[in-house]
């Protein structure tokens, strides 16, 4: 008798963090796998911030959204989007209440760590042609060698002509790589510290080896590569000056594990949350408050630039909503922000059993335990954190509970082990209530990140419920 009472009491009083797959209904399991397949398709097509903006815009148009510029007036239920310089995107569904009574915003970032070309990239070294690079975001450089890379880019000519490059994503395409040293000769290299195992200036991408046929000129392999680029894209060497060319893993995202319960793939930080935020807003019709989905660039390099979250472009977008709903006046924007709630939808580090000592087990996010709620980030004494007030945490718990969404409270790693920040700061600085809530990722910032299909789906359902709250 007492034993059973204990079991009952424990069930009632403990915060028992069950594996999400336990006690799951067959139809939810099917919905999870279906959603994961759609997500895999999306991230395989969208490896860069420009591709996220482009492909997300297409999905929005298919689902009844139109360009904000096409609308003179906005009314409850209207669905609009704004693409900022092809690199970031805001989408909104106008609510029943006036815009100045506050917004429900979900913001994820569309950029991921990668290898960018320098502006004078092409050179020849002993009959091989290579590209000089400068990596983007926080990477462990050694992870980016000896894997197939694809080339995604935009070159703009002085006359405004735009040239899109995408090589290495199709099966029949050629690919690229950064070659590491063979172990037989790596004695000296292996004595380096891991962080210097591959150094920034060693991240050179191999692009060719055939010399141009005229033996009277020098740098014939480089010349041949430029000839190929000229034939295919009309480029000359100086055109790299006005280019943004990104090398990303050419591998496809796919199901992971014998039970296919996880997804392995590049750029899940933060495309997992981008997709959940985007899919969520497609299910919103006439919400109480105006719902906004933000897919923002430049998170990985500190939120700056006109396409980053520090830019006032978001304010301009909200001002336009105020204008077009006939709701604007001198301090309407500030008032709107002060009454708004934001989910900063970014991934969190998932517990990795290979490095158990790095995490504090009670407070680390775990795969299959649901969408995360991160009250604070920051480093060493929460420094630099935008801590969500507990009232806001309670509000989000209520929304998730009512929607039957499984969530877990998490913090990045052990105290003083490191840390990180998110775009939550940018919203807090605007006077908006903001809380981080996202998806656990193992192997974050690597060329092959890992998520749980269960968690992906919880975020989607949770974000949908938040927009509608
Ligand atoms: Mn992130
Ligand atoms: Mn990141």
What topology, given as strand order, has the largest sheet?
1-2-3-14-4-15-19
What is the residue-averaged pLDDT?
96
- From the spread of the alpha carbons, the general shape counts as globular
What structural category arises from helix and sheet content? alpha/beta
Helix percentage range: 25-40%
Sheet having the most strands: 7 strands, mixed
**Count of DSSP strands:** 21
Which features characterize this protein?
binds manganese (II) ion; 7-stranded antiparallel β-sheet; alpha/beta; 469 residues; 7-stranded mixed β-sheet; 21 strands
Summed up, what is this model?
The chain has helices at residues 2-13, 26-45, 49-62, 220-233, 268-282, 313-324, 332-338, 390-402, 424-428, 453-468; strands at residues 66-67, 79-84, 88-93, 103-109, 114-125, 128-136, 149-156, 162-167, 177-178, 205-208, 243-249, 254-256, 262-265, 290-296, 341-344, 348-349, 371-373, 407-409, 433-436, 440-441, 449-452.
Question: Would you mind describing this structure in some detail?
Answer:
The chain has helices at 2-13, 26-45, 49-62, 220-233, 268-282, 313-324, 332-338, 390-402, 424-428, 453-468; strands at residues 66-67, 79-84, 88-93, 103-109, 114-125, 128-136, 149-156, 162-167, 177-178, 205-208, 243-249, 254-256, 262-265, 290-296, 341-344, 348-349, 371-373, 407-409, 433-436, 440-441, 449-452. It has 469 residues and is an alpha/beta fold. The strands form five sheets. It has a seven-stranded mixed β-sheet, with helices on both faces. Strands 8-7-11-5-6-10-9 form a seven-stranded antiparallel β-sheet. A hairpin with a 3-residue loop joins β2 and β3 (88-93). α2 (26-45) crosses α10 (453-468). It is globular, with a radius of gyration of 24 Å. The relative contact order is 0.17. Bound molecules: manganese (II) ion (2 copies). Residues 109, 269-270, 299, 346-347 line the site of one manganese (II) ion (MN).
């Amino acid at each position: 008798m007492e034993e059973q009472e204990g079991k009952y009491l424990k069930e009632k009083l403990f915060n028992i963090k069950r594996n999400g797959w336990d006690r799951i209904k067959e139809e939810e399991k099917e919905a999870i796998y279906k959603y994961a397949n759609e997500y895999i398709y999306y991230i395989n097509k969208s490896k860069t911030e420009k591709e996220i903006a482009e492909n997300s815009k297409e999905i929005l148009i298919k689902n009844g959204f139109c360009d904000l510029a096409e609308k003179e007036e906005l009314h409850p239920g209207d669905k609009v989007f704004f693409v900022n310089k092809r690199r970031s995107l805001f989408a909104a569904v106008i609510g029943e209440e006036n815009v100045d009574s506050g917004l429900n915003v979900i913001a994820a970032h569309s950029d991921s760590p990668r290898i960018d070309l320098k502006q004078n990239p092409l050179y020849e070294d002993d009959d091989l042609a290579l590209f000089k690079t400068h990596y983007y975001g926080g990477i462990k450089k050694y992870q980016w060698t000896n894997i197939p890379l694809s080339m995604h880019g935009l070159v703009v000519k002085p006359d405004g002509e735009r040239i899109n490059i995408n090589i290495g994503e199709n099966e029949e395409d050629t690919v690229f790589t950064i070659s590491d040293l063979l172990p037989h000769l790596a004695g000296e290299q292996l004595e380096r510290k891991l962080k210097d195992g591959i150094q920034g200036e060693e991240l050179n991408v191999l692009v060719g080896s055939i010399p141009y046929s005229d033996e009277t000129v020098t740098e014939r392999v480089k010349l041949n590569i430029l000839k190929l680029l000229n034939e295919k894209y009309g480029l000359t060497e100086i055109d790299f000056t006005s280019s943004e060319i990104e090398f990303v893993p050419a591998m496809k995202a796919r199901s992971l594990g014998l039970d296919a319960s996880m997804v392995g793939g590049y750029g899940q930080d933060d495309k997992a949350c981008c997709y959940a935020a985007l899919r969520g807003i497609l299910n919103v019709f006439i919400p109480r408050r105006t719902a906004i989905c933000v897919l923002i660039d430049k998170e990985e390099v500190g939120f700056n630039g006109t396409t980053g979250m520090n830019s006032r472009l978001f304010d301009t977008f909200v001002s336009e909503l105020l204008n077009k709903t006939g709701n604007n006046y001198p301090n309407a924007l500030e008032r709107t922000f002060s009454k708004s709630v934001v989910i900063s939808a970014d991934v969190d580090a998932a517990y990795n059993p290979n490095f158990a000592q790095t995490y504090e087990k009670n407070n680390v996010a775990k795969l299959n335990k649901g969408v995360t709620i991160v009250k604070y980030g920051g480093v060493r004494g929460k420094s630099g954190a935008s801590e969500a007030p507990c009232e806001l945490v309670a509000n989000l718990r209520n929304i998730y509970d009512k929607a039957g969404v499984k969530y877990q409270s998490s913090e990045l790693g052990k105290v003083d082990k490191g840390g990180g920040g998110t775009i939550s700061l940018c919203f807090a600085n605007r006077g908006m209530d903001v809380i981080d809530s996202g998806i656990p990722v193992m192997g974050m910032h690597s060329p092959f990140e890992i998520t749980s299909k269960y968690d992906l789906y919880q975020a989607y359902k949770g974000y949908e419920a938040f927009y509608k709250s």
